Amino acid sequence: MRLILLGPPGAGKGTQSQRLVTRHGIVQLSTGDMLRAAVAAGTPIGQKAKAVMEAGQLVSDDIVIGIISERLDQPDARNGFILDGFPRTVAQAEALDAMLTQKGLKLDAVIELVVDQSALVNRIITRAAETAARGEPVRKDDDPEVFKHRLEAYNRDTAVVAPFYKQRGQLQQIDGMKPIDEVSEAISEVLQAAVA
Ligand code: AMP
């Protein structure tokens, strides 16, 4: 099973991806997680990405395309994967297409979590509070002001990615404002139909 989860920051892509990992035994490929790991490890990529991420802007296409291309070649991605947070631009979507063709892989589904953006800032404030309550470090870019920049970047660069897949008849849209379990159920139905 190979799928893309689309949707603005805070739409629930990470939460739903983790559930899919458990249910389907596939890996979650989150470019955000990979970049945060690179920043924490202080790698050259991390050094380049740090300030951009902290400002809520997008890291360059070349960097994320390179990361994903290498990651898809790892043995644990052979069973299938969920792309979470990638592609975020049409250039990334086109590069993904070329990559998959070259690797002889096909996508089973492209799912967009459709959410009311005005509710997202509150969601992110809750996410930050819950993370802090668990004693875990809160993402710097979950600060409400930075989050607004992430939403702007989404609307400027990423909102066009869903129509890219829609035009090709690949896009499935799901109401991401429903309770988490219902969203998971809706995703499962789409996936069952996709592999049937
Ligand atoms: P996320 O965890 O998906 O919300 O990503 C956190 C941050 O990492 C984003 O705000 C961007 O700065 C960067 N990032 C993650 N994925 C990408 C991507 N596909 N293209 C560009 N920047 C990305």
Structure description:
With 196 residues, the protein is an alpha/beta fold. It has helices at residues 13-24, 31-41, 44-54, 61-72, 90-103, 120-133, 144-158, 161-167, 180-195; strands at residues 2-6, 27-30, 81-84, 109-114, 171-175. The chain is built from 9 helices and 5 strands, in the order βαβαααβαβαααβα. The chain has a 5-stranded parallel beta sheet, sandwiched between helices. Helix 1 (13-24) packs across helix 9 (180-195) and helix 4 (61-72) packs parallel to helix 5. The mean pLDDT is 95.
Main features:
196 residues, alpha/beta, Rossmann fold, 5-stranded parallel sheet, 9 helices, globular, binds adenosine monophosphate
